[in-house]
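Q: A reviewer asked whether we had any structural model of the full assembly, not just the individual parts. We don't, so I'm hoping you can provide one. Inputs are below.
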Amino acid sequence: MRSVINGEFVRLAATRLPLWTLLTAVLAGGLVPGLISLIGPENATPPMPAIDTADGAAIVLGLGSFTLFVPALIGTIAISSEYRHRTIGSTFLAQPRRPRVLIAKLVAYAVLGTGYGVVSMTIAAVSVYAAATLRGTAVGAPLAAVLTLTAQLAAAAAIYMLLGVAIGALAQNQIVAIGITLGYFYFLEYIIMILPGVNAIYPMLPGGATAALTRSTFLSDALASQISVPGPGTATPVTGALILIAYAVVAAGIATLIPLRRDIT
Amino acid sequence: MMPASARRGPLIAVRGLGKRFGSVPAVAEATFSAKPGRVTGFIGPNGAGKSTTLRMILGLIRPDAGEATVDGRRYDELLSPPRWVGAVLDVASAHPAMTARGHLRTYAALAGVGRDRVDDVLAQTGADQYADRRIRGFSTGMRQRLALATALLSQPSALILDEPSNGLDPAGIAWLRHFVRDYADGGGTVLLSSHVLTELQQSIDDLVLIDRGRTTWSGTLADFTACYPTLEEAFLSSTTGSQR
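A: Here is a predicted structure for the entire assembly that you could use as a starting point for your response.
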């Protein structure tokens, strides 16, 4: 098993995927929370609490959750490229015990996803402190709260990457897989969030669970109030964490079990 | 250059193998064997079921009926399968953003083989000249050598090669012929599928003919061509291709 996990890390190192992952993490962490804190969340539309308040700092950092489709997309592309470039056959020849290969991939991408989350959220946190310094204000939340939120979103990024891996393993066709990932995380989930009645299920979806975990419901509530529909509501942070873990387990199950009986033609 | 298999090769045995894709029967009751120390040619018209059969031997496609074994066991039941069988199935099977060296390091790690083997197989197959170039710029012949290098990483005692001369230049084809011959002479088992019958005639000892999913002939090359001047003529008179 160790050699297979090692093989998946060697595979990652042999491509430019880790570099692209790092670059997108820097961009996602720096651009969204960084720019908003620089502009001042109180000047945004809708206006948010300023970063010298505990809520304001948490909301700005929580904006990192809006870029979680990026690690999902990376996971999707990485796995579906095995089918696109027909390397999955060589992989199963080198290690025909397929569950080992798929578990090794999950381990490798969980590590890559965690790395993405840590880099992205560290940059976001540093951006918030840097913006506060530039604006001559203090960050409203204590350092411990900022670090906790950073760690929560980093863990969420790892889970989103596993969700992407599962979608890639399920769809095989790279274009279809990317379409499903982007369509769901960047479009469908937001539609569900604002549809009256239907949005009751939003807290059970990955986005809703992440919002519950990080208590980042300000924007979804604001969006709902702007279009005069009831907000989607939210679960408790612990429930949000449990829902995300359940998604990770289901994703791991899909990624491991679906390719088991698949013919590699 | 190298070839000889490190140890005596296994018997590759196919018994009653069958596979349907939907309503299409791809392979039906295929039965044959490839013996150690011999090169077995595996020929048939397009769509006869050659690639499907080879993939069933290697566990990539699940048979609906029958079994294929290497030394009496299914491929996925072997201890360290790449040490038993090296395979070239799909010349396109490589990530274009990787270098040849990165590709080989990946599969060496997956198979639990030391990195020193990467340099060995690069030199062995002549792929060392472009080891650090990205695969996206490779010609078909360069990809074919890389595929063979991948198959040789674990020093297997059997080779399963599906159209290995595709894309090779004349020098490459001659090199492959000698390589395969020396490998079998060293005790290795070789099962080789090809449409280049004139080339195959110079390389093989035994022959398996598959047509519309069924093995229609299995035996020595000498017996198959006994009544014909060439393998090509024997093939054309023995297959449905001759009536098209």
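A: Points you may want to mention in the reply: The two ends of chain A are 25 Å apart (CA to CA). Chain A touches chain B at residues 3-4, 6-11, 13-16, 81, 85-87, 89-97, 101, 261, 263-265 (CB under 8 Å).
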